[in-house]
Fold this sequence. Notes:
Elements: E1 4-7, H1 13-26, H2 38-45, E2 52-58, E3 61-70, E4 79-86, H3 95-109, E5 114-121, H4 125-133, E6 137-148, E7 152-162
Parallel strand pairs: 4-5
Antiparallel strand pairs: 1-2, 2-3, 3-4, 5-7, 6-7
Amino acid sequence: MTPEIRPFAEPDWPAVWAIVQDVITAEETFPFDPAMPEPVARAVWVEPPPGLTVVAVVDGQVAGTAKMGTNRPGPGAHVSTASFMVAATARGRGVGTALCRFAVDWARRKGYAGMQFNAVVETNTSAVELYRREGFEVIGTVPRSFQHPVHGRVGLHVMYLEFDGP
């Protein structure tokens, strides 16, 4: 399956919100408040330009979403970041990989020097393995900094991919 990746549009929000709500209420992979109200989630997830929010569409349905932009302003503005969420029904089918590749390509085209993920839950092995396959490295782990509902306190990885070039 190769999803169509396209920019987020207003009519996509109900499907994106359903994915975001499912992911954050599971409390397994994102350090977002599971009680985050919809308007707050929308403000957090939908990136204003020059950042970008996209959706992955499979068979006419939103199967995943990603947001990307500058990791930190000022002297850190040369490094990008991205976050990804995939619908439960689409996991393990290449949607996350397609979104990750799209985000990395986007960041390279925009002239960033690399991409940093600030908080990858270490027990989210499918995401960690995906990012490693795409060239990211774990450059550090903050121990016991994420309260997982099954595993208790687990670490959050900082992962980084440096792009070729100056």
